[in-house]
Amino acid sequence: MEYTQSFGEALASHWPVWFVSVVLVVAAVIDGKQLRVPNWLTFPLVISGWIYSAAAGYVSGDGLWTALGMSLFGTLVGLALLLPAYAIGGMGAGDVKLLAGVGAWVHGEATFYAFCVSAVVGGVLAIGMAARRRALRKHALQAQMILNEIMVIRNPAQLAEIAAERKSSMLLLPYGIPIAIGAIIYFAWAGMLV
């Protein structure tokens, strides 16, 4: 009984992070099945994060505009972390908007750390997927070639064209999955869920 009560209290006091976690799981499932994170999920996540933050800031006395500013900054952090990969064709727009939605709810610092854990998770999953297909060498060479192109070409539009041409031969990782796993691991480690 005591565990149930303390879990209920934790859920009530940390519901925004639980809400984001549930949305992340839904996004990961959809991305895993369809290789896309839909706008009907990402846009409401971003906008509701702004509304929640402003309302919470107003109610707590921290200031509506201060809290909204933190939410907008978190959104920008989420966008800035994944936009470079999107610009060169290595990431879908839905993944970028998903991390922006996380930022709208949990703000900049937590979004940055969640991204860092997600990047590690994404790397582990990519290596695991390549190993499962017995294509580690092939994908390691492709990764090396992509990094070389980024260093030499440096033109996002040209890099995106090259990525589009190469897409059919690439092992595609639905990045909503690493975002969800990494963010939830970070939320749990940082004590944001309990």
Characterize the structure shown.
The protein is mainly α. Helices cover 83% and strands 0% of the residues. Helix 3 (39-60) crosses helix 5 (93-132). The longest helix has 40 residues, at 93-132. The radius of gyration is 18 Å and the shape is globular. The relative contact order is 0.16.
Features:
194 residues, mainly alpha, 8 helices, 83% helix, globular
| Low-confidence residue ranges | none
Relative strand content:
under 5%
The termini sit apart by: 17 Å
Number of strands: 0
Major sheet size, sense and barrel closure: none
Number of discrete helical segments: 8
Helix percentage: over 70%
Task: Specify Rg, calculated over alpha carbons.
Answer: 18 Å
Mean pLDDT: 90
| Strand and helix order | HHHHHHHH
Shape category: globular
Helix/sheet category: mainly alpha
Which helices and strands appear, and what pairs or packs with what?
Layout: H1 2-13, H2 15-34, H3 39-60, H4 64-87, H5 93-132, H6 136-153, H7 156-166, H8 176-189
Please provide a brief summary of the model.
The chain is mainly α. It has a domain at 2-118 and 174-189. Helix content is 83%, strand content 0%.
